[in-house]
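This part of the workshop introduces the protein records we will be handling. Getting from the letters to the tokens is the skill we practise here. An example says more than a description, so a record of this kind follows:
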Amino acid sequence: MADQNGTPIVGIIMGSESDMPAMEPCMAQLDAFGVPYEVKVASAHRKPAEVHEWAQSAYDRGIRVIIAAAGKAAHLGGVVAAYTANPVICVPMKTSDLGGLDSLLSMVQMPSGVPVACVAINGAKNAAILAVQMLGTGDVEMYRTIVDFKEQMAR
């Protein structure tokens, strides 16, 4: 893998502890792939300085891809993307108000120059797979992990 000493290379950030159950498939998939990650809970609206510091220092800590989960206004991924050059994958959380459509639309309507990738509503597992695919563009072992995964799915 990309990091032999277990230093996290994927950062997972979510706006609330209540997002944790929906993000468990992401963490489980990264565990299955053997990819080290770190998890942070911080709201873009309630703890903006903490989000700023976490995102801005991600690369120096060894993080290469960030997965951001949020619901409703769902600004977390965009705020994170504003403070890092790392790719950011957004996971819109299903909400009670609009079923997650509010989250999804908020995430995909980023301004020019601050892109994020976005998976389906509650698409946490796909976010993990996409993160490893991104990592695989520069790491043969990560690439092989995805090739093997896709071959197993085809059986």
